Every structure is written in structure tokens, then in C-alpha cells.
Amino acid sequence: MVLSCAFFNSCSKKTPVAEASPVQNEISVKASSYDFFYFADGFFKKTHSVQTVPVVPSRPWTEAVRISSISSASLSEEGENPKAYAVVNRLGLLSFLDDKIELHADKELFNGRTAGNLVFYEETPLYSLYRSTFFNDMERNFHGFHPFLVQFNPEQKISYPIVNVDNLKLPEDAEITDYIWDGRVFCCSAKHTEGEKINFSYINFQPKEDLLLITPETADKNIFVTSSSVEKFRETQKIRAFESAPARVQELLSPLKNANFMITVRNAGGHTPRRYSHLVSSSDENRYASSDAILAPSWCAALFQDGTIYIKGALDSSPVFNNGRSVVLRLPRLPASFQYSGFAISGKFLYASWEETDFYMVGRSGFLCVDLGKILY
Questions:
Q1: What's the pTM value of the predicted model, to 2 decimals?
Q2: In terms of C-beta density within 10 A (0-12 exposed, 13-18 middle, 19 or more buried), how is residue 323 classed?
Q3: d(CA 14, CA 306)
Q4: Residues 288/12, Cβ–Cβ less than 8 Å
Q5: Which residues have CB under 8 Å from 82's CB, separation 6+?
Q6: How far apart are CA 251 and CA 300, in angstroms?
Q7: How far apart are CA 344 and CA 372, in angstroms?
């Protein structure tokens, strides 16, 4: 469940990776190499310090304007570096190409809906939408527009639905609160109410033709829907032992062999990420560092919530840095109650999302842009 995953990340005691395992030869990112951006008035604005961002009322994470999902593509158009994308809850989609940033806002799709779960199909970004019935008090017309799976067309720079909830043979008040996609099958968790009772159901669906050619009008005959179970859905979300993580990620984080950490690993331009647990001491399993990693064709990187980044390889259209050895970067330190929550890279530019959190509430939020070219080359 999306909600349970957020609580998992919010409720556990987090250990800064610096405390978990000190590392050598760290590079602190200098102020001349980065800019902060924050969300305000339906757009993003530049600042050089999070401390200067105007205070905003905290809202539940499902309702707050925040980057809910961010990742890099793996391929590019001829003559360009691969792009990166971020889903901004309640606002739209951000696209990054090198140091160029565009916001593709969509008031109709994002109004009153929680957005997230960014994945890729043939380099096309896909994400999901749903209404949080727990926090959202907006009334929904059950016979109106009810999107679930959405694609963003990079050429047209617009988002439009592929599959609506109505196509999945669910009760009309159902919401798909989470999904896992392995590149072939979508495993979905649905929530609906009967009176005051909340029920959950689980379904799988598989496209019968090219996913990007499907529309809500054609989905009924072009997707194959089957029932599933909570046990099968939980199996798709299973946290695996770090020893089974991709070899490049294990090698990247080998300096942290004595640390407890959880890591979410995604492939650039790929499907739903997988989570891995590296627990040295089971007696201290509630104290761990939390991180996100991306495997790209020429580089691999992992960002911890305290701003520590491990990175190795060659940035897009650039040679191998540091003779092929890992580099440890320290992003600007955030104030108490703030954390980095994800990242992506396009060309020589890294984009790291940040937000102000208090349990399930989110206040100020935005992203950091770092010129890695000035640091690694």
C-alpha cells in the first residue's frame, strides 16, 4: 500500500549514513555548484537556501504539493542526453534535460488526486492517480472522469490516461491506491467502501497490445484482467536481502558493510523499483539509513536521506570519472525535520527532491539542482 510504505519510511528511526559508517575522501558540494528550488503558487522558484523558503501549512502527504516520484530515463533522442522526470503531487510533471527544467502542469488531471508511482514503458513515463478517501473531503462524481494509469507524451508535453478505474471491473467508488509493474503485468491494490466498512481487493492486468496505444475507450477489450490476493500482492512488495541486490549496487555501497540500511533500487527507464534490506544487527533493525538508488547504463548512484550520495561510472556523454572508483558526495545539509527523498540525473546535472516532514504531514518542498560536471570532472 502507498500509505503503509510512507508510514514505513516515516515512522522508523533513521540513522544518518555518516553516523552509520564513516567514509573517506568525501566531497562536500560547494555553493557555486547548486541551486535550490521550491514549489509555490503553482510553479517552482529558485532560492539558494532552504531556510529562506516561505513557511506553508503542513498537509497530509497525499494532499501536499511535493515530488512523490522521480527517476531517470535510460535512452535519449539523437544528439541529446537522457531526460529525467518527477511527478509533482497536485501539480503536474517536471522534465529535466541537462540544466533545462520544465513544468507540465495539468489542473484537470491533478486536481483533488494523489499522483505517483513513476515508471517507464519504452522510455515513455507512466504514473498513477487516485483520490485519497481518508484525507480528501472532495466529493467525486462516480459517473465522471476516473483515471488510474496515465502516460506523459514527451513530444506533445501532455499527459493523458491509458486505463481508467472503470476498465478494471471494480466497484464504481474504488480507487487503485498502489500498483507494482514488472514490465509485463500490473499488480494492483484497490480500496472501496461499503457503508462505513473499508474493503480491499487485488487484481492483475496485462495489456494485449502495445500499452501506449491503449485508451480508456479501448481498454476493455485490450487488457486482460484477473483477480489476485493480498498474499500475492505482498509478495510483489517483498523486501529482499541486500545480498540479492544488483551487483553494481552491492559494489557501490560496499563501504557500508557495517551499517543498517534500506535501499530502493530502480533501473533508469525501467519498471517498479525493488527494495532491499542490509541489516547487520537484527537487535537494531528499527534504526537504519534509508536510501534510493538508480542503475543507468553508464553510471550507478545511491542517495541517502541525509544528503550522502555514492556515485560511480560515467555521466551521460562524458568519460569515466575518478578512474572508475566510487565518489562520495555530501549535498547541502538540510535543517532539522527536512530530508532528501529521491533523485534523478540528466547529463551532468543531478536533481534531488527534498521536503519538510512530520510523520505523515508535509510542509515545504522542492528540489535541488547540482552541476556534477563541476565536481566530478
A1: 0.92
A2: exposed
A3: 9
A4: yes
A5: 72, 73, 74, 75, 76, 268, 269, 296, 316, 346, 347
A6: 10
A7: 12
Residue among 349, 353, 351, 328 nearest 253 (CA): 328
- Kindly tell me if the per-residue pLDDT of 65 is higher than 80: yes
Burial 25-58 (b: 16+ CB within 10 A, else e): eeeebeeebbebbbbbeeebeeeeebeebeebeb
CB 187 within 8 A of CB 168: no
pLDDT tens digits, one per residue of 42-61:
999 999 899 999 999 999 99
AA letter at 117: N
pLDDT tens string 158-198: 999 999 999 998 888 899 999 999 999 999 999 988 777 88
Q: CA-based angle 171:177:178, to the nearest 5? A: 125
pLDDT digits (tens, 9 = 90+) for 223-255: 999 999 999 999 999 999 999 999 999 999 999
Classify the C-alpha dihedral 311-313-318-320 as positive or negative: positive
